[in-house]
Design goal:
The structure holds 2 protein chains of 2 kinds. By secondary structure, chain A is α/β, with parallel strands linked by helices. Chain A folds into 2 domains: about 5-190 and about 290-295, HUPs (Rossmann fold, 3-Layer(aba) Sandwich), CATH 3.40.50; about 205-280, no CATH class. Chain A has helices at about 5-25, 35-50, 70-80, 90-95, 100-105, 105-125, 190-200, 260-270, 290-295, and strands at about 30, 60, 85-90, 125-130, 145-150, 175-180, 210-215, 220, 235-240, 255. In chain A, helix 1 packs across helix 2. Chain B has 4 domains: about 5-235, 3-Layer(aba) Sandwich (Rossmann fold); about 240-325, Translation factors (Elongation Factor Tu (Ef-tu), domain 3, Beta Barrel); about 335-445, Elongation Factor Tu (Ef-tu), domain 3 (Beta Barrel); about 460-640, P-loop containing nucleotide triphosphate hydrolases (Rossmann fold, 3-Layer(aba) Sandwich). Chain B is about 30% helix and about 25% strand. Chain B has a 7-stranded antiparallel sheet with strand order 7-15-11-12-14-9-8, with no helix packed on it. In chain B, a hairpin with a 2-residue loop joins strand 17 and strand 18 (about 365-370). Classes of the chains: A alpha/beta, B alpha/beta. At the A-B interface, helix 1, helix 2, helix 7 and helix 8 of A face helix 1, helix 2, helix 4, strand 2 and strand 3 of B.
């Protein structure tokens, strides 16, 4: 008899979570951020519901500041007739031209946090899948797989529902919603191993290549288009890759020679800094910043 | 400092593919750690994470800094800061919760549920333990087995953990004294035997110095057993036991992309399956065979416990979410009355008799819990008399579900627990909070002992003689909404048409049948239950029954509705806004309630849950009592 490996078990658990949500929620949706975790989550969803098409749409809360390569992969994914993609942009942020260079933390707040809330309300989604993992960040380590949000999308860490066995309480009142994290128990290494095992396509930015970059506040940033204010700096070609992807002016690159998943894994294990280290978003209010953002309704 | 993964690092450098292949084959062990910070739990977990390279350089740099500033270990790294630092919620006064941490060895991946030690966090510990294969109990070598150690052992075994590690920590502080270690082992052995823990090992460790954590220490030459990690690497997994039990797969979702495909999706709780295997679908009991096990990567020849699959059956039989696909020759039972252990997890205490949602596997039903037979003192294991259960209370009680559920007893002698079909949660119907969890013991066969007497004059005969169709007109609404007034008028109008009726009025019933009941939430539920039973008996006698009760809770109105045959329960919502009812205040009760002389008054300090789909909705600001009564009579007469 075949015995299951840890990846088999993680996969089975995630599929169980995806199905449980679809069975019990009224209008589920999958938050699709185009990153590697989203790619894994989408792959798991295809497995969970095969041969049916995905029983929920993907939602990309766009900030207009993602990398070009990300938009390219997103559009490729959406070309599959079995997948429905909704792209939402906060109209207010669009009109005001909110951007990471001039508006600092307001950029993330308006495009991502507000944009997400608006999109969920507009379409009446009552359960949204997210690709967050418990190993990423300390407030996530304590969050439930099914994370209850009140009418204002707020997370109350003091009133989390006990979560026993594989029994998830998906019940809620009108206007309340759930964030559901099928990858809660995965680690970064698990995600990479799974990408390798299942041959999942990810954005090329994860792999090292010569890219035009400048240094800002100790971060290596990629000059992805001409909206980047160079202030006289000359972009320098560096061989870099990204460990996490978001808005390009907020995503720090690392210098690297890793051009395959295997090399990424090797590099990750031998030169260790944590994954979120390249993210400007966690820095703006010290160590409790993610917890605060989540309480405000950030994913 | 030893780096156990050093060997692996060479392989990563030279042949990462080979290394990844090794990783692929790793199994997964989930365990909990119990003990308080004083026992050195954080230090021990911190060391496991550190030595298995789960701490990144940037985190390590921060840790070294913090250790110099706040640490208690001089120039050395204080590992406790690592774990405590992860739980920043402590400073913020947030309830201490289960935290999940991840590390790996050369053989296995581990998910550690780090559970808090204090008695007020019992529910959190149970939560962490519910998915664990093993529990690591920390004991301070200087203090030995404490009440807390016994409580943790009991709680962990209660949710079915069979394997324990007694990590006797801080051995450095007792000079690695074998006698001290042996005394603690002897002490624990007595207790373990008493509560039926048979698979346990004791390991002398020092989280601070790393002795016997990753590898065996020279400081304890008298100890011949494995190090903590060595033991975690070889201990048996529940998953292998699950695979050897008969097939059980709760159906989560019916996969129906088109007319030609009907698959049943679910996670296999136990056993194995393959095409051709005979299965029985419960509760219907219909038999078929597995046709295909369908996946994105092609059909499978076999699937085992733990896998999430989609199967098709050879025959077109009825099967939907909540059903269980089981081994044809060895199916589980279905029942509607049980004895169970219940762990209460909410601030609001258990209300015996109230309907809660009960979720077990993929089935959700309404369940009523009786008064507990006893509560268990988790420190002394004594059985105490109890009327209810409050936060962190653990008791044994009987419960009844409104329809049969497919189940298995949670605990299994000598094997892994039946988590999927023996463990349940209770959900409050109003707030939707998870208020309790429980473990089913066995089904009660009470219905076999109290036989119903067959009556020759049936309810149909009673109704035919009276020439009418029985009904229960259930008036609900705030005090002073006009329920009694309108119900009286309706009864008069029906009497005038020669109908046989009876009006059960709230105030009158409380003078007689229910004079032993007060106005607490529990008493209000019992009040409605009795009225419901009386109304049902009267409708059996062929009467049209009218009831006028505030009946503020949806759950209880629903309970009464379910007692009646389909279509005979007619909910009449007498909808008067609170401000209007308070203005009328015909009995002067609102004034008293506002003055604080009346407690638990609906609308003031006790909630009213308006009906969501009442058969008849009377807006008293739109029509007077007489018009309302006419409307109700018309609707009643229209009924077929």
């Amino acid at each position: 008899m075949r015995s299951l490996t840890h990846l088999d078990r993680l996969e089975a658990e995630s599929i169980h979570i995806l199905r449980e949500t679809v069975a019990e929620a009224d209008r589920p949706v999958m938050l699709y951020s185009i990153g590697k975790d989203s790619a894994v989550m989408l792959h798991l969803a295809k497995k969970a519901f095969f041969p049916s098409p995905l029983p929920f749409p993907l939602l990309h809360v766009d900030t207009t500041w993602k990398f070009k390569d990300m938009y390219a992969l997103r559009d490729k994914v959406a070309a599959d007739p079995a997948i429905k993609l909704i792209v939402y942009k906060n109209p207010e942020a669009e009109i005001k031209g909110i951007n990471p260079f001039d508006h600092g933390p307001v950029h993330t707040d308006m495009w991502k946090t507000e944009g997400l809330k608006q999109a969920l309300d507009k379409f009446g989604f009552d359960a949204a899948f997210g690709g967050a993992r418990r190993d990423e960040e300390k407030s996530r380590a304590k969050e439930r797989v099914f994370s209850f949000r009140d009418r204002n999308h707020r997370w109350d860490p003091k009133r989390q529902r006990p979560e026993l066995w594989a029994l998830y309480n998906v019940r809620k009142n009108k206007g309340e919603s759930m964030r559901v994290f099928p990858l809660s128990n995965w680690t970064e290494l698990d995600v990479w191993q799974y990408i390798l095992r299942e041959k999942i396509e990810i954005v090329p930015l994860y792999f090292a290549a010569e890219r035009p970059t400048v240094e800002r506040d100790g971060l290596i940033l990629m000059v992805d288009d001409d909206r980047f204010p160079l202030d006289g700096d000359k972009p320098e070609n560096r061989k870099v890759r990204f460990r996490t992807l978001g808005c390009y002016p907020l995503s720090g690159a690392v210098e690297s020679d890793a051009e395959t998943v295997e090399q990424i894994v090797a590099e990750m294990l031998l030169t260790q800094t944590s994954e979120r280290q390249g993210r400007a978003i966690d820095r703006d209010a010290g160590s409790a910043s993610m917890e605060r953002k989540k309480q405000e309704g950030y994913f | 400092m030893s780096r156990p993964l050093e060997s692996e690092q060479d392989l990563i450098r030279t042949d990462v593919r080979a290394w990844l292949a090794q990783q692929e084959a790793k199994e997964l062990l989930r365990f909990i750690t119990c003990g308080s910070v004083d026992d050195g739990k954080s230090t021990l977990i911190g060391r496991l994470l550190y030595e298995s390279k789960q701490i990144f350089d940037d985190q390590l740099a921060a840790l070294e800094n913090d250790s110099k500033r706040h640490g208690t270990q001089g120039e050395r790294i204080d590992f406790a800061l690592l774990v405590d630092g992860l739980s920043a919620e402590r400073e913020q006064g947030i309830t201490i919760d289960v935290a999940y941490r991840f590390f790996t060895s050369e053989k296995r991946k581990f998910i550690v549920a780090d559970t808090p030690g204090h008695e007020q966090y019992t529910r959190n510990m149970i939560t962490g333990a519910s998915t664990a294969d093993l529990a690591v109990l920390l004991v301070d070598a200087r203090k030995g087995v404490l009440t807390q150690t016994r409580r943790h052992s009991y709680l962990a075994s209660l949710v079915g953990i069979r394997r324990f590690v007694l990590a006797v920590n801080k051995m450095d502080l007792v000079d690695y004294d074998q006698a001290a270690f042996d005394a603690i082992c002897a002490d624990y052995r007595t207790f373990a035997e008493k509560i039926g823990i048979t698979e346990w090992v004791a390991i002398p460790v020092s989280g601070l110095n790393g002795d016997n954590v990753m590898s065996r220490s020279e400081a304890t030459p008298w100890y011949n057993g494995p190090s903590l990690l060595e033991h975690l690497d070889i201990v048996a997994l529940d998953a292998s036991a699950d695979a050897e039990k008969p097939l059980r797969m709760p159906v989560q979702w019916v996969n129906r992309p088109n007319q030609n495909f009907r698959g049943f999706s679910g996670q296999i709780a136990s056993g194995t399956m393959g095409p051709g295997a005979e299965v029985r679908v419960l509760p219907s009991g219909r038999v078929s065979r597995i046709e295909r096990i369908v996946t994105l990567d092609g059909d499978l020849d076999e699937a085992v416990a733990g896998q999430s699959v989609t199967v098709t059956l050879e025959d077109e039989i009825d099967c939907s979410r909540g059903d269980v696909i089981a081994a044809g020759g060895d199916p589980p039972e279905a029942a509607d009355q049980f004895e169970a252990t219940i762990v209460w997890m909410a601030d609001e205490e258990l209300l015996p008799g109230r309907g809660y949602w009960l979720k077990i596997g993929t089935q959700t039903v309404t369940a009523m819990v009786q008064h507990p037979k006893y509560e268990i003192n988790v420190n002394t294991l004594e059985h105490l008399a109890a009327q209810t259960l409050s936060l962190n209370g653990i008791g044994v009680a009987e419960l009844a579900t409104d329809r049969e559920i497919v189940f298995e007893p949670y605990a299994v002698e000598g094997s892994s627990p039946n988590r999927a079909l023996g463990g349940f949660i209770l959900i409050d119907k109003l707030t939707n909070a998870t208020v309790a969890c429980g473990m089913l013991h066995f089904a009660l066969r009470r219905s076999l002992n109290i036989h119903r007497q067959h009556l020759d004059v049936s309810r149909e005969t009673h109704a035919t003689i009276k020439g009418q169709k029985p009904a229960v007109l259930w008036f609900t609404g705030l005090s002073g909404a006009g329920k009694s007034t309108i119900a009286n008028l309706v009864e008069k109008k029906l009497a005038a048409r020669g109908r046989h009726t009876f009006l059960l009025d709230g105030d009158n019933i409380r003078h007689g049948l229910n004079r032993d009941l007060g106005f607490t939430e529990a008493d209000r539920i019992e009040n409605i239950r009795r009225v419901g039973e009386v109304a049902r008996l009267m409708s059996d006698a062929g009467l049209i029954v009218l009831t006028a009760f505030i009946s503020p809770f949806r759950a209880e109105r629903h309970m009464v509705r379910r007692m009646m045959p389909e279509g005979e329960f007619i909910e009449v919502f007498v909808d008067t806004p609170l401000s209007e009812a308070e203005k009328r205040d015909t009995k002067g009760l609102y004034a008293k309630a506002r003055a604080g002389e009346l407690k638990n008054f609906t609308g003031i300090d006790s909630p009213y849950e308006p009906p969501e789909n009442a058969e008849i909705h009377i807006d008293t600001t739109e029509m007077n009592a007489d018009e309302a009564a006419d409307l109700i009579v018309t609707r009643l007469m229209e009924r077929r």
